[in-house]
Amino acid sequence: MPYRPPGPQPTPWRPGAFPTDLFNLLSNAVKFTSKGEIFIRVRMIHEQADSVTLQVDVTDTGIGIPPQNRDSLFHMFSQGDISSTRRHGGTGLGLAIALQLAEMMEGSISVSSEEGLGSTFSFTVLMQKNSDAREWLPVLPQNIHATRILIVDENASSRHVLETYLSLWNCRFSSSKSVNEACDLLQNSIKNNDSFTIAFVENPMKTPSGIPVVPALRAACDQISLVIVLMTHVGRRENPKTTRGDTGDYILQKPVKYGQLHDCLALIGGNTITVATRQNTPATTSPAPTKDTRKLRV
To answer: Which of 16-25, 185-194, 237-246 shows the highest mean pLDDT?
Structure first.
């Protein structure tokens, strides 16, 4: 969820309704998505002195909903069609309850869909700000801000999440959806004397000719040093005997979370990990890892 509130952490008027509504929409997305992904986006669409309005989007790559069935989705005991009911089960109450919960939170719910491609269910919620809450502001080492970061990932949603996180720190970054495109960006950056220093790379990836991504990126860099962070999927096991030539310098497990990305960049920067708050409270630090630490597993 690439969302960080710009002010104090809000507290909902009815705390139980928000997670229940989100759970209902997630359950619905999982039920009708056999392949692809489910992506959650939370963003603030309105702010007042004592409250904020958030919009939550749950997007899936499932079967989609025919246009003639969308108007009745939020009615009791209604589902997209009879055939999907037989295949996936359910009572037809989930979306009707989701509508009631959204209205309970002084919000609304809507759907956009394309049959065969997926759906996006969105609901809004009015939340009260908590004046006692503190905003978490992780501080990155200054040398990280001065570097260029390359994102290499075939998945558009994964790229979007990393781009959102890096934007919060005002980092300099570029994104690529293929190994060949990434190699071109690396070579052009060297020609322009503004080379990339860090690359976050989806693993596994290969060039069209079958060359693994890490050797291809290192070859494109020529003699320029590039720190490569491999982003692996949950459950994927790395071979500890592989050499630096065909593996990265650090490993992050996907989905990459905000705090994990911060800690990884702080580790690469070689500084202590510092966390500041908006209020005048002492910063907390933890010692940097030893120099022989080469992989970060979170």
So the answer is: 185-194
